[in-house]
Amino acid sequence: MKKPTQPAEVTSEGLVRLDKLLEHRSRLGACVLLADVEAMTFTSLKRHLKETDGNMGAHLRKLEDAGYLDVSKRFENRKPVTWYRLTGKGAGALRSHLEALQTVIRGARL
Q1: DSSP structure string for 66-95
Q2: CA torsion sign, 8 to 10 to 11 to 14?
Q3: What CA–CA distances, in Å, run from 98 to 1, 19, 26, 65, 82?
Q4: What is the pLDDT of residue 15?
Q5: Residue 110, H or E segment
Q6: How far is CA 79 from CA 38, 53, 92, in A?
Q7: Who's near 72: CB < 8 A, 6+ residues apart?
């Protein structure tokens, strides 16, 4: 396959490779945050991403359903705590998505 040379071709090629699931700020943000740690709690993710309980839960569920996140629930000081971890599949999807974004950015001439 010939490498695109025109900015529009480069941008188009990058846009096609974007992961639809990671196009939302909160889902992308959750994966980026989890890529740098072993695991993070629901409360921490919600706080860092400035989301409500309902919105954060819905976004994390989509990532979990896609196999991008592993979830574990346990009690700490008699309170339920939900922990999230990025899976290998999630890390690969994040890497591909970020590479596609870099391609789009390289194609932009401002």
Answers
A1: TTSEEEEEEEETTEEEEEEEE-HHHHHHHH
A2: positive
A3: 22, 9, 15, 21, 27
A4: 86
A5: none
A6: 21, 16, 33
A7: 39, 82, 83, 85
Query: What is the pTM (predicted TM-score) of this model?
Result: 0.85
DSSP letter at 38? S
Sheet order of strands, 40-41 included: 40-41, 79-86, 69-76
Other Cβ atoms closer than 10 A to 15: 13
Cβ–Cβ contacts within 10 Å for residue 67, how many? 12
Q: What is the pLDDT of residues 1-36, one digit of tens each?
A: 555 556 566 667 778 899 999 999 999 999 999 999
